From TrEMBL:
Gene3D superfamilies linked: P-loop containing nucleotide triphosphate hydrolases
Physiological role: Necessary for flagellar biosynthesis. May be involved in translocation of the flagellum.
An example Gene Ontology biological process: SRP-dependent cotranslational protein targeting to membrane
GO molecular function, one term: GTPase activity
SUPFAM superfamilies registered for this protein in UniProt: P-loop containing nucleoside triphosphate hydrolases
Record-given protein name: Flagellar biosynthesis protein FlhF
GO CC annotation terms, alphabetical: plasma membrane
Record keywords, A-Z: Bacterial flagellum biogenesis, Bacterial flagellum protein export, Cell membrane, Cell projection, Cilium, Coiled coil, Flagellum, GTP-binding, Membrane, Nucleotide-binding, Protein transport, Transport
């Protein structure tokens, strides 16, 4: 990026200078009245991300582009003033030296150009000058380094930093922040953003969403079509029984009640199966309970003529009595049971992960994401399914039976998550 300051008596004249010297692509960073006229600071190849990077802390307060440009113009002015002072100091040192040389030798030092000539290239001090006058060599070398670094700063080329790389890093940083705002964890957001190696923030955002959609697995067919035995496991209150009610109601509405059965393995809690029995009565579907006298396999043998069997389980934690027994009977059954983890989208990512560790032993085939309606952002849930590789069979977004149940598809889910983020940002904007 090339930054240049223009001064003229009128704005029209200043703008003409800008057009003549910088061309039509120049961006005006700031303009202001100064003694005797107007001053304009302009930039060519202006890159907002790089400007933010260079301004550091100050850029954080600049929420819009014009404030950022003003800050950068101010910084440029400060650096140019500093550069002017350094040139002045170097001129003084040289004059002093020339005076002392002429006193000593009675001659003017021919290798030193007059101060006026130094304006543009004051760092080009010939080596022999410093060597011939050791008294000044330290001071001159120090000033030469200082002036050279100031010039780098003014022109935006920090020594050691590659501007293109800096700009890419800044875009990646902002992309990672946006992905975290979306609800993804720090690591996943970082790894997605690092894959964006060139282009604007918006391109990186779209690319990350595509990668996310590609990384979220979903079940190809609906359970009602495929048929078989499906069990729902998961922590208490995650929505297992309600989801079974929704699935059963959908099934009965489409195919009737004859080929469906409900089973519960919850014999651990008082009146635990009441809710399931209510669904059974309303839908006219049989409900069977696994207990000491009826094993899961015996019940499934009896129900082998049913097209679809849905198994509800007790939401137990690893310290509860019956936790291991319940999961083992699912995992060891001689029937093919497709066990799905029911996870609430409102859970903290760490809790989702620990729930997954808890229920892995049941040989999970996939998951059902519940309470999507209550989650502020959905990136947490998407990150969870991406990281665990669990295919999402269904998601639920409310308590209404059967309406609030949906077969999951990756792209609409990611789209839903984007809409949720937008809504959140709008709410936050109104609140400010
Ligand atoms: N907002 C909302 N509430 C839901 C959703 N799914 C379930 N719920 C509610 O969550 C609460 C718990 O649901 P249950 O189905 O009883 O949960 P569970 O997993 O069977 O719980 P346990 O039987 O204790 O293991 C109920 O009040 C449901 O109405 C959903 O998608 N959105
Ligand atoms: Mg339940």
């Amino acid at each position: 990026m090339k930054v240049k300051r223009f001064f003229a008596q009128s704005m029209a004249e200043a703008l003409r200078q800008v057009r003549d010297q910088m061309g039509p692509e120049a961006v005006i960073l700031s303009n202001r009245r100064v003694d005797g006229g107007v001053e304009i600071v302009t930039a060519l190849d202006y890159d907002e991300n790089m400007a933010r990077q260079q301004l550091g802390d100050a850029a954080r307060q600049a929420t819009n582009g014009s404030r950022l440009a003003e800050l950068q113009a101010e910084q440029h002015r400060r650096l140019e003033d500093e550069l002017g002072r350094s040139r002045e100091r170097i001129r003084e040192v040289r004059e002093k030296r020339a005076l002392s040389d002429s006193r000593n030798n009675g001659a003017y030092a021919g290798d030193i150009r007059p101060a006026a000539d130094m304006a543009g290239a004051s760092d080009m001090v010939p080596e022999e000058t410093a060597v011939a006058n050791p008294a000044y060599s330290g001071e001159l070398a120090q000033m030469r380094a200082e002036i050279s670094s100031l010039r780098d700063l003014v022109s935006g080329h920090h020594r050691g930093a590659e501007p293109e790389k800096t700009a890419v890093n800044a875009v990646q940083q902002r992309l990672a922040e946006r992905l975290q705002e979306f609800g993804l964890g720090h690591e996943l957001a970082g790894s997605l953003s690092r894959r964006h190696r060139a282009g604007r923030l918006e391109d990186g955002w779209k690319q990350s969403l595509k990668m996310l959609a590609a990384g979220v697995k979903t079940a190809r067919t609906e359970w009602a079509e495929e048929g078989g035995v499906y069990a729902l496991v998961g922590p208490t209150g995650s929505g297992k029984t309600t989801t079974i009610g929704k699935l059963a109601a959908h099934y009965v509405l489409a195919h009737g009640a004859d080929s469906l059965a409900l089973v519960t393995t919850d014999r651990y809690r008082v009146a635990a199966h009441e809710q399931l029995f209510v669904f059974g009565r309303i839908l006219n579907v049989p409900v069977r309970v696994v207990d000491e006298s009826h094993s899961l396999d015996d019940i499934l043998d009896e129900l082998s003529d049913r097209h679809l069997v849905l198994i509800d389980t007790a939401g137990l934690t690893s310290t509860d009595k019956g936790y291991e027994e319940q999961l083992t009977e699912l995992a060891r059954s001689h029937h093919r049971i497709r066990t799905h983890l029911v996870v609430s989208a409102t859970s903290q990512p760490r809790i989702m992960k620990s729930v997954w560790h808890c229920y892995k032993m049941a040989n999970l085939s996939g998951c059902v994401m519940t309470k999507i309606d209550e989650a502020l952002t959905l990136g947490e849930a998407l990150g969870f399914v991406m990281e665990t590789g669990l295919p999402v069979a269904y998601y639920t977004d409310g308590q209404k039976i059967p309406e609030d149940l949906h077969h999951a598809e990756a792209v609409p889910l990611v789209r839903l998550a984007v809409e949720r983020l937008k809504k959140l940002q709008q709410q936050e904007a109104v609140a400010v």
